[in-house]
Amino acid sequence: MRAVIMHAPGDVRVEEREDPQIIDPTDAVIRLAATCVCGSDLWPYRGYDQPDHQHMGHEYVGVVEEIGSAVETLTVGDFVVGSFVISDGTCEICRDGHPSRCVNAIMVDGEIGTQAEKARIPYADGTLVATPGRPSADLIPSLLAASDVLGTGWFAADAAQAGPGKIVAVVGDGAVGLMGVLAAKQMGAERIIAMSRHADRQALAREYGATDIVTERGDEGVARIKELTNGLGAHSVVEAVGTQESMMQAIRSTRPGGSIGFVGVSHDVQLPGGELFFSAVHLHGGPAPVRRYLPELIQLIWDRTIDPGKVFDLTLPLAEAAEGYRAMDERRATKVLLTL
Questions:
Q1: What's the whole-number mean pLDDT along residues 332-336?
Q2: I want to staple 91 with a disulfide (CB 3.0 to 4.6 A). Which of 103, 181, 195, 275 is the partner?
């Protein structure tokens, strides 16, 4: 089968790999219907991490082709959405609602790689969720978004305690930040402030429910948030970048007693203890427990209540994956969908 391999920073190739097979009785093999490039894939692409023939991709939807003898919730032919972290669904951590930190967790990116034609999914019952039927083609991008970027934005808004009467600020206008806007709107936030400098992303943020746009960053961005909130700061802040600047911008934009949901993949972020102590804010985040939210998100998409698939603004065949990476790296695209 064809699959995307990152040999080194900036070196993305589509190569032949062996077709996956059932190894354990809890496995499923799926044929992918669509996959995509994630903003987090740009960390190794830009050299912040050091990939070495890494199997790329962790967002995926597709059709079950084969199941192991212990798989109980899926049948061959099911259309499924999977989480970006493999989880068994039965350990104490999974049962407590944190499947992305399952005791048997496997990161799909690197270990499996779903920028490919097929994938073996361990612990299929704990990782995959079947849709109510075969989706129409126009629903596939939205279902693909649920696999990570929507689920991650949803978790960020949930962790930030977005809800009725709340002012929500979103730091980061990439795909996850835009999904955080969508999620905050669905959760009933009264006001949503999107921090963005890009006109196309501002437009989509407004479509998803943003009421205000802040173009400033850093201390200037914080000052603008305070200005919009009577000097107090937002009740709920989504941090969707993962840098020192974005984290401090999030903390300083949050009012005392408010909450931050941080889901940007952290790179060299250090928290100043004194400032954090006196900020009196709640911090919760990390790898999103996407599997926890999948049944709800799939139903919202199936009922056409939400349309997260609009976040994909460039579609390419798998063979042109390298161009997809370039387009996102150069900010010519917000998120790239790869067809198979």
A1: 96
A2: 103
Whole-angstrom CA distances from 108 to 261, 282, 328 are 23, 29, 21
CA distance 90 to 92: 7
**Backbone phi and psi for residue 106, each to the nearest 5 degrees, phi listed first:** -130, 125
Residues 335 and 340: their CA atoms lie apart, in Å, by 17
- Whether the pLDDT of residue 110 is over 90: the answer is no
Of 163, 139, 14, residue with least CA distance to 79: 139
In tens, the pLDDT along 283-308 reads 999 999 999 999 999 999 999 999 99
Tokens (6 digits) for 28: 């499923």
**pLDDT-based confidence at residue 49 (cuts at 50, 70, 90):** confident
Supply the pLDDT for residue 69.
Answer: 98
